[in-house]
TrEMBL record:
Superkingdom, taxonomy of origin: Bacteria
The entry's keywords: Hydrolase
Name this protein carries in UniProt: Cellulase family glycosylhydrolase
Organism: Streptomyces spongiae
GO molecular function: hydrolase activity
């Protein structure tokens, strides 16, 4: 009888926010500045970054992709590789830290719904294909993601779940086509902020997140549904939030072996006071590492936004592991120490034998978010020492599925 292959080592990284000029630095990309930032990240013992170019700079006209901007992105990937860091590239930005970046050909007199307009979709196909082809031969590339939290754009681009499915399928195929010449194992993914999981009628669905792309990405933020405000910054609900996000995502997957990536989590002030941030980071990473099927954790973010830049929400200015002068903050030390410990003694979590049944009828997704009855039952069980998995009600009678996940006991939320 053959022995199943050992799981791949967990990945630990950070979302890269340039220290000088934030993402506006793409307007005058400086290799020396990037090298300095990347060296600081590598010194923490992290193994990868996630990077974001700006859509208007890459594709200022629907039929024009600027070679110089693509070359900047490729160069950053290579600089990261020189620092010992692998890179995940997000293609369509889209949304970053409360700002939306639309090319002018989608706006005002030329307004096009970026999710439904055929010309706008075709333009994004061209962009993702071009990025994939430019990046395919670079050994430090992890893969290509469609864009950062594209579901943040639904307010100005009304869309139905069926149209979202078409949009994601089309763009994922384009990214795969672009990377078709890459070495095996390159990822093609997409991401959504927490409304996809907790928003009752949000058009981006948990099923789309958990079934499209090569793995599931989750962005479990403590301000979503006022989690930290409801329960407190040191609460179990806050410190187990990323763990819960992984388990919730696994429930919606069809493939029981599908990996989940905690792709964004961070310590936003005042939701997490600075004094609590190091322990929050440590507990978040350790709790997530107790999940089977975890790909890795990528912290948000590398560097604080400089306060000389105006109009950001207050929490955006202090999310970095490094401050805006480049000094490592206590949270950076805590994260580096935790990662080193997990690398020295890799976790080997057992499957979760007990599962809490999630009966989430259409329009009731919020029961599984902070403040919801299901969320609170799961957290109570976790606080009492259980390690509950999540199982959708429609899979609760599927003996083969439960066996594949190692589940031997089911608990209904109402029975708590």
């Amino acid at each position: 009888m053959s022995t199943p292959p050992a799981p791949a080592p967990l990945r630990f990284g950070v979302n890269y926010t340039p220290r000088r000029g934030w993402f506006h630095s793409w307007h005058d990309f400086d290799e020396a500045h990037a090298r300095e930032d990347l060296a600081q990240i590598a010194e923490l013992g992290l193994d990868h970054i996630r990077v974001f170019h700006l859509w208007p700079l890459l594709q200022p006209n629907r039929t024009l992709i600027r070679a110089a901007a693509v070359d900047q992105l490729v160069r950053l990937v290579d600089l990261a590789g020189e620092a010992g860091l692998d890179v995940m590239v997000d293609g369509v930005q889209g949304h970053l830290s409360s700002f939306d970046f639309y090319p002018e050909w989608t706006r005002s007199w030329h307004h096009r719904n970026v999710f439904t307009d055929p010309d706008a979709i075709e333009a994004q196909v061209r962009l993702l294909t071009a990025l994939g082809r430019a990046l395919a031969g670079h050994p430090h590339l992890i893969g290509l993601q469609l864009g950062n939290e594209l579901n943040n754009l639904v307010e100005h681009n009304p869309v139905t779940p069926e149209q979202v499915d078409h949009y994601l399928d089309t763009l994922l195929a384009a990214a795969r086509d672009g990377l078709s010449g890459a070495a095996p194992g390159r990822l093609v993914t997409h991401s959504a902020y927490d409304a996809a999981w907790y928003g009752d009628d949000h058009p981006f669905t948990p099923e789309a997140s958990a079934r499209k792309g090569d793995l599931t990405t989750v962005h479990p933020w403590v301000f979503s549904a006022n989690c930290a405000g409801r329960y407190g910054p040191r609460s179990p609900q806050v410190r187990h939030l990323s763990e819960y996000g992984v388990e919730l995502a696994k429930a919606y997957a069809v493939d029981v072996d599908r990996l989940v990536w905690v792709q964004e989590t961070g310590a936003p002030e005042p939701h997490i006071p600075a004094a609590d941030a190091p322990e929050f980071a440590r507990s978040t990473v350790l709790n997530a590492a107790g999940c089977t099927g975890l790909w890795g954790v990528t912290w948000w973010c590398s560097h604080d936004v400089d306060r000389s830049l105006a109009d950001y929400p207050e929490l955006e200015y202090t999310l970095g592991l490094f401050d805006s002068s480049g000094r490592a903050k206590p949270i950076a030390t805590a994260l580096a120490t935790t990662v080193a410990e997990l690398r020295a003694t890799p976790p080997a979590p057992e499957p979760r034998a007990t599962a809490l049944i999630l009966d989430c009828a259409p329009g009731t997704r919020s029961v599984s978010g902070p403040g919801g009855a299901y969320f609170e039952t799961w957290m109570r069980l976790r606080t009492e020492g259980a390690r509950p998995a999540v199982v959708l009600a429609e899979r609760a009678d599927d003996a083969g599925y439960l066996k594949a996940r190692g589940i031997t006991e089911l608990v209904r939320a109402a029975e708590g």
